[in-house]
Design a protein that fits this description.
2 copies of one chain form a homodimer.
Chain A (H helix, E strand, L loop, with lengths): L5 H10 L2 H12 L2 E2 H8 L3 H13 L3 E6 L2 E6 L1 H34 L1
Antiparallel strand pairs in A: 1-3, 2-3
């Protein structure tokens, strides 16, 4: 079995929620404030705060306080981790397919 | 707002579950049978069947009946879709960053 990866668990938990994906859709276009996110998505500031916390904990977003305004943006770390997970699962499988091809070629040659 | 994407909803729902990710871990190493999956993960055949159905519906795995044995393997379609989603979110954001850099350079040049 592969090793436990608590980061990927957090990432998939974060991405499992449609409101959090809607937040990322918005942040991928431009950084914005917590207030604007709440307005755009029609949810309370408290709810946005909770979703952002989960996105921050998984490395998919980050927030920064500039003066009195909290600005949120996409963070690359979570996306990097997710891409590595995909690559890992895809490549292991593709290597197996290559090996299978070699075995078939060998058996045909006999 | 971005368009609704029911496929990505299904993919993230599928990947939100640790047992389904454990199934993909295993399939990424090699195709296997439903029975072996159930044994390896210590869950019932019924549970494996339900998880596989969700993985198939999201294009992440596929099953094939060869004689009396049902064999499961990784399917690339779901992984392709997931990669496109990441690229889309990342690239929109990176384009914005580039544009921000240009604006800063312009304002410094004035």
């Amino acid at each position: 079995m592969k090793k436990k990866d608590p980061t990927i668990d957090r990432i998939f938990h974060a991405l499992g929620d449609p409101t959090r994906r809607a937040i990322l859709d918005r942040l991928s276009r431009a950084p914005t404030t917590v207030t604007r996110l709440a307005e755009a998505l029609g949810v309370t500031l408290t709810a946005i705060g909770q979703h952002l916390q989960i996105l921050e904990d998984s490395g998919l977003a980050r927030t920064e306080k500039l003066g009195r305004v909290r600005t949120c943006s996409i963070h690359h770390a979570g996306f990097d981790h997710l891409e590595a997970w995909i690559r890992d699962h895809r490549s292991a499988w593709e290597k197996r397919l290559d090996r299978l091809g070699e075995l078939l070629a060998e058996s045909e040659g006999q």
